[in-house]
Amino acid sequence: MRSILFVPGDSARKFEKACGTAADALVLDLEDSVSLANKALARSETAGFLQQSPRAKYLMVRVNAFDTGETLVDLAAVMPHRPDGILLPKCRGGADVRELAHYLAAFEAAFGLTQGSTDIYVVATETAEAMQGLSTYAPAHPRLKGMLWGAEDLAASLGALSNRDGADYSGPFILARNMCLMAAAAAGVTAIDTVCTAIGDLEYVADESRAARRDGFGAKMVIHPSHIEPVNAAFTPSEPEIAWAEEVLRHFAQNPNSGVVQIGGKMIDRPHARAAEKILIAAGRDLP
């Protein structure tokens, strides 16, 4: 999963358009992109779309946050129709993941779904309280698959006038990005980079995406279809990367008791082997 496209939950027309894109996954959004007046419509439209089969993409639903009182209403509307995952905004830490997991288990039992079949993703940095809870995700709940950082709501929580210093994020938001990356790595789940808000600047999108992958993010959220191509390109391993990964794993397979091997005059150790495995998995290649 490289690109994850947000789609407003109250627009069936946009659902169909999103399905025709190259996004690897869609987030059917019941939260920020839907007005209060349209919440019921969004639940109905989203439920109807989830009933369609076969599914061409991974479909998750962003429900409303726990503090809104809308979360269970959202889940009751969509869970009968088997969403692949639930995205919980303004998540405060591991305790919120466990609470959501209990709800999902109950809905799965009520609607005859396989227990544990609904994944959990969280937006982990939207409030100051959430930042304090980043260390509580590890060890990860079995349902937790990914953690996303976000800057817009965090700015409001901090009382910041802006989250930018020119074209780049300012200090508090770089901290949130990096801490989410570390927390996801500690929990052993995918770190997901936030959306790029420079809608018309595809080179900026590409640069931001390449920087995210360089630093360890495994995917990126997208709010405009034009961003999908540069995001997918950035998160797709290149042929030289794949060749390097295959060579590293081949050397370790030939030397199973070695902690270090030499390739091209360079010392390669076990952490490089783990990095090589991630490259091949991202490329959809079989591990040697």
Brief summary of the model shown:
Belongs to the HpcH/HpaI aldolase family. By secondary structure, this protein is of the alpha/beta class.
What does this structure look like?
- By secondary structure, the chain is an alpha/beta fold.
- The chain has two domains: 3-234, Alpha-Beta Barrel (TIM Barrel), CATH 3.20.20.60; 239-282, no CATH class.
- It has helices at residues 12-19, 39-50, 71-78, 94-110, 128-132, 152-158, 171-187, 202-215, 228-234, 239-254, 270-282, and strands at 3-8, 25-29, 58-62, 85-88, 119-123, 144-148, 164-165, 168-169, 190-193, 219-222, 260-263, 266-269.
- Strand 11 and strand 12 form a beta hairpin.
- The protein is globular, with a radius of gyration of 20 Å.
- 40% of the residues are buried.
By CATH, the superfamily of the largest domain comes out as: Phosphoenolpyruvate-binding domains
| Helical proportion, percent range | 40-55%
How would you state the average pLDDT, rounded? 94
What is the level-2 CATH architecture name of the largest domain?
Alpha-Beta Barrel
Which sequence of strands runs across the widest sheet?
A: 1-2-3-4-5-6-9-10
The sequence of SSEs as H and E is EHEHEHEHEHEHEEHEHEHHEEH
Strand content: 15-25%
What is the CATH topology descriptor of the largest domain?
Answer: TIM Barrel
Strand runs, count: 12
Number of domains: 2
Q: List unreliable stretches of 5+ residues.
A: none
What structural class results from the helix and strand content? alpha/beta
**Computed CA radius of gyration, to the nearest angstrom:** 20 Å
Distance between the termini: 21 Å
Enumerate how many helices there are, as a single number: 11
**Main sheet overview:** 8 strands, parallel, barrel
GO molecular function, one term: magnesium ion binding
Protein name: CoA ester lyase
Domain HpcH/HpaI aldolase/citrate lyase: 2-225
Binding site for substrate: 62, 126
